[in-house]
Amino acid sequence: MEGLDGTYAGITFSGIFLVALLALLVCFVTYFALRKKVERKMIFAVLGLFLLGYSILMAIILSNPTIVGIDGPFYIYEVGNVVNTGATATLTPPVVFYVMAGFSLFVGDVTLGVKIGQAFFPALMGMTTFFLMRYFTKDRFAILAVALVSTLIGAGIGPMAGAIKNTAAMSFAPIFYLFYFKFANNEGRKWRIRFPVKIRGERIAPSINSNLFISILVYFIILATHELTAGFVFMSVVAHVFFHAAYQRNIPWHEFKFVGALAVLMSLAFVSSSLRTHIIGTANSFAASYPIPSDLFPFTSFGSEFPIAIFFPLVILTLPAAWSILKNRNKHGQLLIAGMLTAMICSQTWILTPAYSFRFAVMMLLFIPVLFGISILTLRKSHPKTCSCLVAFGVIFSVAMLVGTTTFNIGPKEDVLQQLERYRQSEQAEQVMEIIVVENLSPDIPQYPGSIDLQMSEENIQEEYSWIDLSLPGISVAAYNTSDDISMVLSWYDNELRSRGWVILDRRENVEFSWGTMYATFDENSANINVSPGNPAGHNILVISGPRTSMDNDQGNHRSWGFDVPTPTNAISFNHNPLFAFILLPIELVQGLYGTWFYGVAKLIVAIPLTIGMIGLLFRVTPTYCRKCSRIFRKSHR
Question: What is the DSSP string of 297-366?
């Protein structure tokens, strides 16, 4: 297929036709679906915003001859496999890749097909958020402001190629929340299912709410688009149940039933032992537990102030909405607050693995636009000038965010071109891995049995693996090749190193993206085995020897990440501030499970939502006790 080399810079007639066809299709479907429910001016305004976001994204993405972002080549590689073989090469949620493959077949170019999908999904975020906001209010000004901010934010994060599946799943999430809210309000038809079994002369005929069915259907579409986003959506609903129960002091049984039904269906979908192992392994890999900071206010991420620097101004815009929701005990609005808090908690690098914490932080953008709209509704009547300033600031900051990400993503980058070339060359290989062993000193780490010494020069290794500094004293390097799979190689090194007295501190595998890692120490020596797609075909084993003090941190190979990664631990410790020790208690207690098969699931589905519930309890009791203390203080001074 033409375009796999990533040199496509223009757009053909067929590409222009597809871009226009997709835009017209969305416009026609939306118009005919809403023409009897929404006035035409609103429909045309929202469609105009969709076309604006779609146009901006296409202009940004087509300005670069390759796919922007470190994961860009992966999409070309997978879509190329779908086009040529009819299936993805790895175990990965297929929706985005099959849609992009359809685009690629239409235009006859894989790169262009991926780019069209990269622009199409984020542009939908503004439209789906419009539907969700309209459920909360019929105020046109607030709805359009929300749609505009969501469109600009979607256009800003759209060019991030590593987030293509993220943004695609996020574009479906507002529809899930919409039907979930309708179900919670007992809206929609009830479908009766009559079974042939009779009890006491009456047939069993349970009823299913239509909105329950649609919301679960949308959820499985999200699950087939991006697992992390689907996991977060489920977490936010569970967190809503805990938050509501703690804040309003009653259990929302209707929502609780929904969570139970969804959990049962997900469990039935994961009955396969291999799939269950994959899900648990993935959850454990990105839910690695690190010691909590001892600071008074520990919420930091990537060295920035809480929650993440670029999102902080947008979070401020949601504070009036949070105050209004809590004051009025708005049950649906509480889900938005619970979801926002869940994203904030998961954005912390000491709660989730830093490689994934930013992805969860991006989930805040699911709730910020709608909370922004509720803030507008809250301030518009009593503080119109403040409301106008709020809207202006929200739009200006969204535009600035769009301009900033656009400036960052425009223009080809050498590392992207190199990665694209590696994926292109390795396309025909069944297994393309590189196994990197970093920082081993005597006793030597043995060569993997049956592997072949590649005789790679230090110059070639330095060029291929830029994060390695071979100029440091005491560093030596050798490279080997084997075709065995990741698990086999890591298991062999695990057993071999343990038999030689090494301590294995961490081991993870991700089947979906075909990588694994293992970190071990022995006295003053350490070894980091990192598995990821590489070239030439087969498994490359790269052994780098040297003293630990010669590397930039204890795990050596994370220099390119730009931050230090602490060592995972199952130790239970508490923040010095008793308030945070109370709030973070569930997360801290679940650390004791680190290393077990169900650790990640327990942390993400139970511990973090319980933490959100404790925050809800704090929100509830603090004003009450403040009022009581105020009354006592006034009585004592009479």
Answer: S---BTTBSSS-GGGHHHHHTTHHHHHHHHHHT-HHHHHHHHHHHHHHHHT-TTTS-HHHHHHHHHGGGG
96-101: long-range pairs with CB below 8 Å, 24+: 96/121, 96/164, 96/165, 96/168, 96/225, 96/226, 100/75
**What does the block give as tokens for 299?**
């919420």
* Backbone phi, psi, residue 331, to 5°: -60, -40
Cα separation, 429 vs 420, in Å, equals 15
Distance in angstroms between the alpha carbons of the first and the last residue of the chain? 86
Number of H helices, E strands in the chain: 24, 11
Query: How much is the pLDDT for 219?
Result: 93
User: Angle at CA 61, nearest 5°, toward 57 and 63?
Assistant: 120
The pLDDT value given to residue 106: 82
Contacts of residue 22, Cβ cutoff 8 Å, sequence gap at least 6:
54, 116, 120
Which of 131, 138, 168 has its CA nearest to residue 57? 168
| Residue reference for tokens 């006592």 | 632
Are the C-beta atoms of residues 80 and 267 closer than 8 Å to each other? no
Q: What single-letter DSSP state applies at residue 606? A: I
d(CA 86, CA 98): 9
Long-range contacts from 561-566, C-beta under 8 angstroms, 24+ separation: 561/354, 561/355, 562/302, 563/302, 563/303, 563/349, 563/354, 565/353, 565/354, 566/290, 566/291, 566/350
User: In angstroms, rounded to a whole number, what is the distance separating the alpha carbons of residues 419 and 432?
Assistant: 13
Chunk the chain into consecutive blocks of 10 residues (it has 638) and report each block's average pLDDT, rounded to whole numbers. Answer: 42 65 74 69 84 86 67 74 80 84 84 85 89 89 91 80 80 93 83 59 66 89 89 94 91 86 81 69 76 68 50 86 91 92 87 79 90 92 88 87 68 48 44 36 63 69 59 62 72 78 68 63 65 55 51 37 55 81 89 84 92 92 78 68
Under a CB-based contact definition with an 8 Å cutoff, are residues 251 and 245 in contact?
yes
Look up residue 213 and give its two tokens: 């069915």
- For residues 152 and 62, give the distance between their C-alpha atoms in angstroms, rounded to a whole number: 18
Bridge partner residues of 452 (DSSP): 481
> Would you state the structure tokens that stand for residue 632, as one six-digit string?
């006592």
335 and 236 Cβ atoms separated by less than 8 Å: yes
Residue 73's pLDDT is 65
Buried b (16+ CB within 10 A) or exposed e, 186-213: eebeeeeeeeeeeeeeeeeeeeebbbbe
* Count of CB atoms situated within 10 Å of the CB of 520: 24
Three-point CA angle 75, 465, 283, nearest 5°: 50
What is the amino acid identity at position 65? P
Contact criterion met (CB below 8 Å) for 394 and 45: no
Give the DSSP H/E element, type plus range, for residue 510: strand 503-510
Distances (CA, A) of 436 to 48, 245, 487: 50, 48, 14
37 exposed, middle or buried (CB, 10 Å; 0-12, 13-18, 19+)?
exposed
Provide the whole-model pTM: 0.74
Q: What are phi and psi of 193, to 5 degrees?
A: -110, 115
Q: Given this model, what pLDDT does residue 280 score?
A: 78
Residue 110 phi/psi, 5-degree rounding, is: -65, -45
Return the sign of the alpha-carbon dihedral for residues 259, 260, 261, 266: positive
